[in-house]
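Thread: sanity check for a docking pose with copper (II) ion

Original post by kr_44:
Hi all, I'm comparing my docking run against an independent structure prediction. Below are the sequence and the ligand SMILES. Could someone generate the full complex and paste the structure tokens? I mainly care about where the ligand ends up relative to the chain.
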Amino acid sequence: MGLAALTAARRRGCERGHGYVEGVNAFHVIGGLFAVWAVTLTAIGIRREDFPRPGLQTAAVGTLSILLAAGAIGSGIVTSAQEAEEHEEEGDAAERGGAGGGGRALTLSADPGGDLSFDTDTLEARAGQVTIEMENPSSVPHNVSVEGRGVNEEGKTVGQGGTSTVTAELQPGEYDFYCSVAGHREGGMEGTLTVR
Ligand SMILES: [Cu+2]
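Reply from moderator J.T.:
Ran it for you. Here is the predicted complex with copper (II) ion included:
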């Protein structure tokens, strides 16, 4: 199996799983080959005093050693880079999915044109302390509030350029987020917050 095939196999594994797969990669394979090569050379060197013979043999042994060492180091660097990238992607995904619960705030925005709507009607968070921050770019005053399962917390109503924030301790389940300014929720400023 070539390096490209190995990398492809590893990528497929990543797609199936969740970003990061512990296991065999190109670095392990080439590093292993390099180790075997070093041990073999040492064994031959110990038994045969004339090894390697000057000329072609020395050149071949030297070249192979350098190639394997370069391969091991190179694939090590590539592997680390790939893993760093994958970890970064995981971080981004967690952020996009809306963390909450983990200390980070969920963010949303009121419609900039003054419509009675948010820029999303679904939010997701992990159970625990969840904070929602809503920016209000419109000239209509709005707030963000959360209701459900015995919880009803209202954020401060803010004008243009302001940010309304609401924080609540939430158990897994479905909640409504909405604007509590009279008539706004009925006008469409609401959505579903799913807590897992
Ligand atoms: Cu509103």
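The pocket of copper (II) ion is lined by residues 142, 179, 181, 184, 189 (CB under 6 Å). Hope that helps with the comparison, let us know if your pose agrees.
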